[in-house]
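User: Second chain of the day. Same drill as before.
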Amino acid sequence: MEESADKLVSKTPAFQTAYLGYSLQNLVKLGKLEKYYQRLTDFNFLMAKIQHPEFGVQALIDDFDLVDDSEALTHPEYDPQKAKALNLIQALLWMSADILERDKTQLAEQLWGRLVHSTTPQIQAMLEVAKQCKATPWFRPLTPCFTPPGRGLIRTLKGHTNSVNAVAVTADGKRAISCSDDNTLKVWDLTTGEEQFTLTGHSNSVNAVAVTADGKIVISGSDDNTLKVWDLTTGEEQFTLTGHSNSVNAVAVTADGKIVISGSDDETLKVWDLTTRKEKFTLTGHRRSVNVVAVTADGKQAISRSSDEIVLVKLKNDIYLNGDFEVVTSDVVTYDQDYNPPKFWDLTTGKELFSLKGHGGLVRNRVAVTADGKRAIFVADDNTLKIWDFTTEQELFSLEGHSRYVKAVVVTADGKRAISASDDNTLKVWDLTTREEVFLHKDHSKSVNAVAVTADGKRAISAADDNTLKIWDLTTGKELFSLEGHSRCVKAVAITSEGNRAISASDDNTIKVWNLTTQKELFTIQYLHFYRNWVEGLCHRFKFYVSSFIVSESLALWSGYNTVFGTANGKQAIFYSRDKTIKVLDLTTRKEQFTFTGHSSLPSAVVATADGKRVIFSSLDNTIKVWDLTIGEEQFTFKEHSDSVRRVAVTADGKRVIYGSDDNTLKVWDLSSGNVIASFTGESPIACCDVAADGVTIVAGDKSGRVYFLQLEGMEELT
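Assistant: Same format as last time:
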């Protein structure tokens, strides 16, 4: 059983199963801690177990728990450095589980993307082995482009097909229940990160969820105007509560699990008896939709918040407070209306206690408080979670990772974990106790829309929704400087062939030309309003407007087209439109050459080969089409992504295409064979990409603001 894992492929399936399943347990029983360490830092062993049909990622994660850290301290073979390596690897597997479950070949990419700067010898050795073991071309991260272990994120839960609107967690902290615009609820095991089952029955979006204190019953509210009561043990629907005349937006349940309060777009709250399964009474008083409802721990007070910006607190006397809230204790309520800062109120007096400041975006109805009332988690429009200390009234730390709005957050009863739900269709589980700072690019604070690489391959420029451009050193992956001047989102960027100037286009309806040597703006051009969405393919040797007549006499003719792209030889201009067509204009004759059709959705990006013979279009219909510009015919269509393809780039030799998608993947496609030769999975939807002149250095940006610096390894195998 002491065969090395890299020789498993030559063994029988029975031997492989025994080796992967029992060897570690036997090593632990025999007290061979050194062998145990070696096995779990063996890249080949990890890959074999992840890819084996009887095991997988979770089984591998469980292997790291076979030895208790506290017991191992007294073992003669205990090595603190190796124990640290095991902790890092297990944390990485937790964080990468959703990616590795989708693509079991991505372990090397995850190791390099999360631990490339680790100084632990065992980790560095694993990185080198991983690099050598990839038999096919792959994207090797040059910098730590993923969130590393120790930054709070434990795991990402994926399964919903639309925005996740709310999440609840059982009192024992073992399970989470999420609800979504996909009309379902999902029950998750927080120990393994696995989905236990899906609750179906609502006919419209599910907006709210609550769980009883004993963890046995779940109550959900939906746009179908109903509440449903579910048995969390069996996953079956028990009964439906009807009575609201419009969407149910909020649900709360008393501590004894007997009473449910719901808030609705019909401007009322209803109080339900779960024993009799009937409505007890209706609370009126709000003038608009009721969006939030909470119950104090003693179950004697219900608090509601409506879009009429009135908070109704039922005490001995009614107290009305403006804003949104979360109950901290029975006599304190938090306030976080749609502007900063959140405020805290004493319910017995109705007076403000204090306010907190620090979010970069608006605080909107999302706050969770630890059971001891000492800390709060606030969510803002900048997609972050911020943890505050009530005692000091100071921000403790911030959690980043979601690529879109966070719509809900809850904290486990022990205050150690938080679960957030987002418009990016995911839930993220966060560790609130570990906040070790590890080197990681700050990158942009919002979605990266475009990237470009200089001809010499030494620098890259990214453009983002935070209104800035950033210039990066591709050798070190470090930010050199930032360009500021646009007043709205920067949607496109291009670099001249000399590499000393850049051109950017923004939603502020301007094109700016920058001197990259002096790091200053040279001049600004105002462009017409119908170009305000996206301007791509801005320039080739400063031909960002292709020729003067395109921005004058021809714009009226082509005003239905949102984007213009010039071929490298300067002979053609390509326009694509919201009517799903692409037109090719001959710049010599100023006449239309071809009209390309075939996409079932909007074209999203265009790139032409350097020789001007082919043009590649990506589309929101998840496909890529290649057209022959000499005869105007489609050559082939590529269908590989499960979501919209946003950006494409082509290598200088015109042989390969790199493209990114909303399914979080970046792929390389060989134009000769029509095959995918490498794939990379990011943490968020890939919004843009570009390739350096060497054909192997790739820069990509995602919707969370992260910039990826990658090298395409193993290409020599294809030449």
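The mean pLDDT is 79.

User: Great, on to the next one.
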